[in-house]
TrEMBL record:
NCBIfam families: flhB (TIGR00328). The chain crosses the membrane at residues 35-53, 88-105, 143-164, 193-212. GO terms for cellular component: plasma membrane. It is found in: Cell membrane. The gene is flhB. This is Flagellar biosynthetic protein FlhB. GO terms for biological process: bacterial-type flagellum assembly; protein secretion. Residues 1-12 have a biased composition (Polar residues). The keyword DNA-binding does not apply. The keyword Protease does not apply. Required for formation of the rod structure in the basal body of the flagellar apparatus. Together with FliI and FliH, may constitute the export apparatus of flagellin. Belongs to the type III secretion exporter family. Residues 1-26 are annotated as: Disordered.
Length: 356
C-alpha cells in the first residue's frame, strides 16, 4: 500500500517514537488478541472442567432434588443466594482471571510497558462529523477492517458447517446416549469447531500483526526536513550556538579585563601576545595566569595594565610559551618557573622580598 505522503521517506527518530508512545499511539493487533483470548478460554475450560462439573452438579442437585423441601424466608433466600454466588465464583473467577491474564500478557508483549492518560483527554476533533464520515466511508483503514471482519465471519461460519457435515453419521446414536455421554460429545465437537475456526483466524491474526506494524512505521515516517529540524533542536541551532559562544566570550573578556589590574606583570610578544601574571604565595604555590590574548585583545590587556600601573615586560619566547600552554586561572608549569621568576625578581614589588 503506498505511503499517503511520498515526502516522508525517513525512518522515525527515537524522539518521534517516544512522543507517539506518550500519546498512546502504538502498534497492536486486535485480531491477535481475539485468538489469544479464544485459546485461553478453550484450554482454561479444559483444565477447569472438573471443578465446573462438580459445582454444576451441586447446583442441579440442590435446586431439583431439594426444591420441594425449600421454605422461602428472607434468611433462607439470603443463604441460598450466598451459596450460589460462591459456587459460581469457584466456577468462573479462575477461568476469567486466566483469560484476562493471557490477554494482558499478549498486549504487554506487543506494546511493552506503557501508561498514559492522553487517550482519555477530551478532543473536539472527535466530534467533527465530516471527519468522522470520511474515516467511516473513505478511509483505507475502514476498508481493511471491514475486509477482516467479513473474512472472519466467513471462516467462523464455515468451520461449524465442516464439523457438522463430518459428524452427521454420529447424530442418530446420540438418542441412546445418557446425559454424561451427550455432554462429552458436545464438548468434543465444540472443541473441534473452535480448532477449525482458529487455524484461519490465526493466519489472519499474524497477517494483521505484520500489517499493523508496517502501517505504524509508515505513519511514523518523517520528511528529511523534519529530521533536520529535530537534529537542530537536539544539537542546538548553529546560529544560536554561535551567538551563545559570542556572549560567553564577551563575559569572559569582561571578567578577564577586571582581573588585569590585580596582576603583578604583563609579559608581551611585544605586539601580538600579552599574558598577565600574578604571584601570591597565600593564593597558590606558583604564579597564575589572570588574562591572556592575541592581537587586539593583547593591546587591550596592555592598555588596562598601563592605566593601573602594572609593569609590562617584553619576552617573546616566554609570552608564546605561556599563551600556548597555560589556560586562564591555571598555574604556570615547572619548566617556566625560572624564566618567570627572573622577571618577577626584577619588579619593585618583589625586590624587598628577595632581599629578605
Amino acid at each position: 500500500m503506498p505511503q499517503s505522503d511520498p515526502s516522508k521517506t525517513e525512518q522515525a527518530t527515537p524522539k518521534r517514537r517516544k512522543k507517539a508512545r506518550g500519546k498512546g499511539n502504538v502498534a497492536k493487533s486486535q485480531e491477535l488478541g481475539k485468538v489469544v483470548s479464544i485459546l485461553a478460554g478453550m484450554y482454561g475450560l479444559y483444565a477447569w472442567i472438573g471443578v465446573i462439573y462438580d459445582s454444576m452438579n451441586k447446583i442441579m442437585v440442590r435446586f431439583l432434588r431439594d426444591s420441594m423441601q425449600f421454605s422461602a424466608t428472607p434468611e433462607s433466600v439470603y443463604d441460598i443466594f450466598k451459596w450460589l454466588s460462591t459456587e459460581l465464583a469457584k466456577m468462573l473467577i479462575p477461568l476469567l482471571f486466566f483469560i484476562g491474564f493471557l490477554a494482558y500478557l499478549n498486549m504487554r508483549v506487543q506494546v511493552g510497558k506503557l501508561w498514559t492518560t492522553e487517550v482519555f483527554k477530551f478532543k473536539w476533533s472527535r466530534f467533527n462529523i465530516i471527519s468522522g464520515l470520511k474515516r467511516l466511508f473513505v478511509s483505507t483503514q475502514t476498508l481493511i477492517r471491514m475486509g477482516k471482519s467479513i473474512l472472519q465471519a466467513v471462516v467462523i461460519g464455515f468451520a461449524p458447517y465442516l464439523v457438522i457435515k463430518s459428524e452427521m453419521a454420529n447424530f442418530l446414536p446420540l438418542y441412546y446416549t445418557d446425559a454424561a455421554g451427550l455432554s462429552v460429545y458436545l464438548l468434543e465437537t465444540g472443541h473441534k469447531m473452535v480448532l477449525y475456526a482458529l487455524v484461519p483466524m490465526t493466519i489472519i491474526a499474524l497477517a494483521d500483526l505484520w500489517y499493523t506494524r508496517w502501517d505504524y512505521e509508515e505513519n511514523l515516517k518523517m520528511t528529511k526536513h523534519e529530521v533536520k529540524d529535530e537534529r537542530k533542536q537536539a544539537e542546538g541551532d548553529p546560529k544560536i550556538k554561535a551567538e551563545q559562544r559570542k556572549k560567553m566570550l564577551q563575559v569572559m573578556m569582561r571578567r578577564m579585563m577586571q582581573d588585569v589590574p590585580k596582576a603583578d606583570v604583563v609579559i608581551t610578544n611585544p605586539t601580538h601576545i600579552a599574558v598577565a601574571l600574578r604571584y601570591d604565595a597565600m593564593e597558590a604555590p606558583a604564579p597564575r595566569v589572570l588574562a591572556k590574548g592575541a592581537d587586539h585583545l593583547a593591546e587591550k590587556i596592555k592598555e588596562v595594565a598601563r592605566e593601573h600601573g602594572i609593569p609590562v615586560r617584553e619576552n617573546v619566547p616566554l609570552a608564546r610559551a605561556l599563551y600556548k600552554s597555560v589556560e586562564i586561572g591555571e598555574m604556570i608549569p615547572e619548566d617556566l618557573y625560572k624564566a618567570v621568576a627572573s622577571i618577577l625578581a626584577s619588579l619593585h614589588k618583589f625586590k624587598g622580598k628577595q632581599r629578605g
